[in-house]
Amino acid sequence: MAARELKEQGIPFEIHEANNRPGGKVQSIEVDGAHADLGAHWLHNDDDNPLTAIARKAGLTLQKDTASNRLAYVDGTRHGSEFRTNLSQYFDASKVAQVRDGNIADIPYHKLTNSPEGEDLIKRLTPTWSGVDANDASPSATALLKSANEPGGYVVKEGFQAVIDALVKEVGEENIHYNSRVKKVDNSQETSRVEFADGSTAIGKKTLFTGSLGVLRSGQIEFNPPPREVAAHLKGMQTAYMAKIVMKVDPQFFAQHPNLHDLHVNILDGDKTSLLNVASAGQPFVTLMVGGKEARRLETLPASELNRYFFDHIKDVAELNGLQAHLKGAPIRTGWSKAATSMGCYSSTNVGAERSGALSMGNLHFAGEAIETEYAATTNGAARSGQRAARNIAKELEKDVTEQLAPQVPPCPPQSFVNMVEVNRNQPAPNGKPWHFTR
Questions:
Q1: Given phi > 0 = left and psi -120 to 50 = alpha, else beta, which region is 219?
Q2: What pLDDT was estimated at residue 411?
Q3: Which residues fall within 8 angstroms of residue 79, CB to CB, at 6 or more apart?
Q4: Would you state the pLDDT for residue 439?
Q5: N or C: which end of the chain has fewer CB within 10 A?
Q6: How far apart are CA 184 and CA 38, in angstroms?
Q7: 141 pLDDT more than 90
């Protein structure tokens, strides 16, 4: 979205993508003409999401998922759709209001409850809600109460990846360099220099870094000088983990059980916590999701154990009796925690911490869901953060040009954008001379 914003303002750019495909933690698979999402799944907040406009413009099929078709199995006991609604009875309304309004200090989210029973239940649900374990790093109550994210949203029948592909067409595939893993960003001079793992370099006026929280926290990228504001921001964040097992199912199974479409099932079984997503947007898949430490463990299991793991989690779900006889193909598992370009899924805010909303240091800007405030931990937030950073860059460039045009100021150096933004080779520089950069 940052590149799209720059293009709309007539600013040349290049995108340097660490993976061999666009989208980051958005990835869809196609099996027998049906689509399933391995990463991001919902267009949260419906039409108040900049990515929704991209999807509509591309003619993609959007199906509303209100998350209303919901069940829960708690230690073997079935609860109907009222389970989610009834969760409100476990919260202390007065405490919720005081934390939300800032009248009392921030607390762990599960501490908003009014009883030990309620606290235990919310703690057990936390991994599938926030991707972290409540006993290790409970998410901030303030952050979750002030979040503008809405449950459910639009599901793209063609897969979320189709939205990214449409965005790529808008910004131009020719402006994207794949397999460009950033090794170092040197922002110590007037221009910004980026070094890549393959030994190539790029020099530009501005750098917009959109890497994941997991990558930023890993220290695998060197920044010179160290971005201290970013380091302070990172201390207030935890990397959230979510893993999926996706099962392809014979469509006849769902034809015989139409009530299963867009079914969500929370499963709490002893120390196991998971979320089932069944036939989302009418696609013949059943997806099991686990979060926190369990997500990381799942992604290390031998492939031979995935079937057993899946059915061990759903054994109490009567609605899926007979499913095993209708499976088609092997289980498909995600690997976000192990991938060097993601090292996790999204971010969770620690108690007492606040998100920055915008981060920059000189010519170096940062964007992503971990920077976003209102719509954190979603692709909606990532898109909004990218738009905001691109607009800030455009304002800085406009200011630079104004200063450069002043008589007492010497001719300006070449302008280019690297990582997210670099110079477009086909456009002349403002001074009429060729652009100068190295790769």
A1: left
A2: 52
A3: 71, 72, 73, 86
A4: 34
A5: C
A6: 30
A7: yes
Of all residues in the chain, what percent carry a pLDDT higher than 90?
A: 83
Q: Which domains, and CATH codes, for the chain?
A: 2-65+154-239+342-405 (3.50.50.60), 70-150+242-333 (3.90.660)
Q: In one letter, which amino acid is 3?
A: A
- Compute the distance between CA of residue 412 and CA of residue 407 in angstroms, rounded to an integer: 12
Contact yes or no for 423/414 (Cβ under 8 A): yes
* Residue 356: predicted pLDDT: 83
Strand 34-37 and strand 42-43: the pairing is unpaired
Token pair for 221: 């990228």
pLDDT above 70: residue 415: no
Contact indicator for 16, 209 with CB cutoff of 8 Å: no
Element (H, E) at 83: helix 82-86
Backbone torsions φ then ψ of 292, nearest 5 degrees: 65, -145
pTM of the model: 0.90
Paired residues of 263 in beta bridges: 278
Is the N-terminal amide bond of 225 cis, ω within 30° of 0?
Answer: yes
Q: Are 37 and 419 in contact (CB under 8 A)?
A: no
Q: How confident is the model at residue 406 (pLDDT cuts 50, 70, 90)?
A: low
Calpha distance 217→239 (Å, rounded): 8
CA-wise closest residue to 278 among 258, 264, 257, 259: 264
Q: Which of 130, 100, 103, 124 is nearest to 112 (CA)?
A: 100
In whole angstroms, give the CA distance from residue 9 to residue 11: 6
- Predicted local distance difference test score (pLDDT) of residue 90: 96
Tens of pLDDT, residue by residue over 9-42, are: 999 999 999 999 999 999 999 999 999 999 999 9
